[in-house]
Structures are given as structure tokens and as C-alpha cells.
Design brief:
Number of domains: 1
Main location: membrane
Radius of gyration: 17 Å
Number of helices: 3
Transmembrane segments: 6-25, 37-58, 64-86
Oligomer: single chain
Keywords: Membrane, Transmembrane, Transmembrane helix, Transport
Largest sheet: none
Organism: Sporomusa acidovorans (strain ATCC 49682 / DSM 3132 / Mol)
Order of helices and strands: HHH
Protein name: MFS-type transporter YhhS
């Protein structure tokens, strides 16, 4: 069962991460892309490291049903917020221009 869960995690991460990088590259000025990609990667690594420690304590004290419910609510709120941030009508940068709207 653990191997199946790991495989599903890998497939999901493999689908989401390249999409986030593409979206970031499209919405960020060329001069800021390195910084933006560094922030994305660092935030993901820090989130993975902290979530295991924090959620382990949550599972130990409050149980797995609460843990999975809390993670589901957090994921839903994050997805909902991300949708509204990304759905703003900011056009992607035209190649060679730096004056379009950007996230960074």
C-alpha cells in the first residue's frame, strides 16, 4: 500500500510541478525568473520538511482522522486561493518585453 501511495504522490507531483514552473515563467518578467523559480523551489522544500514534522505531532496528539481532515481543508483553501490569484486577467509576458504585469 505504501508503494502505491508513493507512486501516486510521484505522479501527482510530476504533473503539478512542471505546470507551476510554466505558469511562473509565463507570468514573471524575464529579469525576475531566477528569483521566482528559486522561491518556488525553496518554498516547496521547506513545506515538505516542515509538514512532516508538524503533521507527525498532529497525528500523534489528535489522531489520523483529524490529520487527514485538516490537510484536506488546507488543500481545498490553498487550491481555492490559488485559482483566484491565477485567474486574474494578467496576460502572459510577450517575448522580449518587461512591462507586462507580473507576480514578482
Amino acid at each position: 500500500m505504501l508503494i502505491i501511495a508513493g507512486g501516486l504522490f510521484g505522479i501527482g507531483f510530476g504533473a503539478v510541478f512542471p505546470s507551476l514552473v510554466l505558469l511562473l515563467v509565463q507570468k514573471t518578467a524575464e529579469s525576475n525568473r531566477g528569483t521566482a523559480l528559486s522561491i518556488l523551489t525553496a518554498a516547496g522544500d521547506i513545506g515538505n520538511a516542515l509538514s512532516t514534522a508538524i503533521l507527525g505531532v498532529v497525528a500523534e496528539h489528535l489522531g489520523y482522522p483529524f490529520l487527514f481532515s485538516a490537510v484536506a481543508v488546507t488543500l481545498f483553501m490553498g487550491t481555492y486561493g490559488f485559482y483566484f490569484i491565477v485567474s486574474k486577467k494578467t496576460p502572459p509576458l510577450a517575448s522580449g518585453t518587461e512591462k507586462s504585469a507580473s507576480l514578482f
